[in-house]
Structure formats: C-alpha cells, structure tokens
Give the backbone structure.
Amino acid sequence: MDNEKLFLAEAVTDFIRESNWLNGRDIRTLAQLRDSVVCKNSQIGEFKCYVELIESRGPGYDPKIICVDTCLQHEIFELRRIGINTIGCCCGHGRKEAYIQVSPQSVKKMHELGYEQLPEHDDGQGKWCFKPKTYLLEPVRKTYKFDKAET
C-alpha cells in the first residue's frame, strides 16, 4: 500500500473523528471512501493498511511500537492511554466484523467504558474481544473468526 493512500485513510479517519457536525450519510460516505482506498485493497493478514503507533513507556525505556489498522488508530491509542492493555485488533477490512482484543485484566474496564463484548468461538478465537466504537462499514460476514484460507 503506498503512503499516499495511507495518508488519505488517516485524514478521513481524523475528519470523521473530529467533525461532530457530520450527519450519518456523510460519515458513511467518508467511511466508504476510506474502505475503497485502503481496507478493500488489503487482505486480512497482509498488513497493508496499518500505521505504527509509538507508545512511550517512561524514562529509561525504549518506546514501544504498536501496529494498528489505520481506521482504529485513535481508538486504540486512547484505550492504551487510559490503561487498557490491547493485545490485538482488526478493522475487518470490510470482510469480517472488526474487533479489539484486550488482556483479561482489561475486560472489566472495557465493560465499564460501555464496550460490547463479542462472543468467543468454539475453537477459542475471540477471547476477550470487543466491538470497536469507531465508525466502520458493516462487514460482509458477521464474524471475526478467521478461516485458515484467509490468514
């Protein structure tokens, strides 16, 4: 994925987040633009639409780099800033349901913040996963389970 497309996706994400005057149709149109430029051009597991968040761990520690799908970067950054330990996430790329996975110690806090916990699959996938609050397009399939052929 070229840098111009990632920059456009970041700009659209920022605009949706910062513009409280947008109506639902405008938000959906912008999300469709972001999706068509970045998400649909990145298969799950290709890691083409991510950005690197740099997290300071305090004096004397090297910064930690966290890779996050472009459209989820603000939400993940904010969750980590308030002490939620995220351990994985995916926007779903328009193919699957998006999720934010947290450590077991952060599950209670996610519920307190009003996050909807997603069901765990029989094979163990999806443990401690929550539905993001970031506006994302509805997925083709309402599952965040990844089939072997998709990863």
User: Anything to note?
Assistant: Residues 3-18 form the longest helix (16 residues). The longest strand covers residues 50-55. The radius of gyration is 15 Å. Residues 3-146 form one domain.
